[in-house]
Amino acid sequence: MDYLVFSQMSLLSLHKLRELDLVPESVKQEGRLLGQRIMDSYSSFDCSLLRHISRLGSLRCLTRLDMLVDQNLYLEQFMAELPNLLELGLSILTRPGLSKHVYLHEYIPRLEAVVAATKAPVLKVTVVAETRRQVIKVFKNNYVEKLVLTGPCTFNLFPVMVRLKEVVVNLETSFLDNNCTYWKSRINDRGLHRAGLCCVNIGAVYENCPNLERFMGVEVGTVRRWTFNKWNIRMKKKFYDDYLQQGGAKEMKAWAKTRWVSRCPVLPENIGVVN
């Protein structure tokens, strides 16, 4: 694969390369998501391409990079050579049914390590498919200012980003009464998503995202950070109003019981560490 890429790319001048999009037009084949063998082929080609661009010294010229990645996340080895990225996009398609060991000791640490290493102010993560596990993912980064997530309600992300100003979460809304798939959500309570719980946990930003201004369209920058309980009361009011504007009908007490954070989250000790 390296020889094939080198022989073709050696004819090109890449010193002006600024954007690289390695996400295929479709991640489906005959109506089904790409299988692992095809994903391995994509990964092999993409890795060879990045190695070749690296040899030419052109990776540092990139300002935008979009990648299709699986549980192996080989991109980690190239992150130090991408100091000038303005936007990093990751489309995640893992092998179905990942074992607990692979999920906890390979996939999650590698994903967290890639996020921690980027200096791009805009990070976009699209979860095409991943093994569903109730495990916290911690995105810790000192450069990201805007986080855009497209994925399932159960992604369970805790952002730890000192410069983060805005969180955008794109969730499935095509079904009339079965949009929300958050953990243990009742069948009769899935019409509207749980803003602050679905995909990204709002409680994690209390101590970890001091510059956050907007979360899923809700203005949160004006809420002072006293104790967690006082902060949480004011945030709860804002998100309950947003829930009502979307057509929600629950009283606040009933809404908060199943649709809001009740305590300050505790982050895992090891972040981005491959055991």
What's the quick description here?
28% of the residues lie in helices and 19% in strands. The protein has 275 residues and is α/β, with parallel strands linked by helices.
Number of E-type strands: 12
- The assembly state of the depicted protein chains is single chain
Structural class, from helix and strand content? alpha/beta
**Count of DSSP helices?**
6
Helix and strand pattern = HEEEHEEHEEEEEHEEHH
Q: Tell me, briefly, the overall form.
A: globular
Strand line-up in the sheet with most strands: 1-4-5-6-8-10-11-12
Instruction: Measure the end-to-end span.
Output: 29 Å
Mean pLDDT: 89
Considering DSSP H and I runs of 4 or more, what fraction of the residues is helical?
25-40%
Uncertain segments of ≥5 residues (pLDDT<50)? none
Q: Tell me about the largest β-sheet.
A: 8 strands, mixed
Strand content: 15-25%
Could you give the topology of this structure?
Blueprint lengths: L1 H8 L9 E4 L5 E2 L2 E2 L2 H20 L8 E6 L17 E7 L6 H18 L4 E8 L7 E5 L4 E5 L6 E5 L4 E5 L34 H4 L5 E2 L2 E2 L8 H18 L6 H8 L16
Parallel strand pairs: 1-4, 4-5, 5-6, 6-8, 7-9, 8-10, 10-11
Antiparallel strand pairs: 2-3, 11-12
Summarize the structure in words.
This protein is an alpha/beta fold and 275 residues long. The chain has six helices and twelve strands. It has helices at residues 2-9, 36-55, 100-117, 205-208, 228-245, 252-259, and strands at 19-22, 28-29, 32-33, 64-69, 87-93, 122-129, 137-141, 146-150, 157-161, 166-170, 214-215, 218-219. The strands form three sheets. An eight-stranded mixed β-sheet has the order 1-4-5-6-8-10-11-12. Strand 2 (28-29) and strand 3 (32-33) form a beta hairpin. Helix 1 (2-9) crosses helix 2 (36-55). The two termini are 29 Å apart. The model has no long low-confidence stretch (mean pLDDT 89).
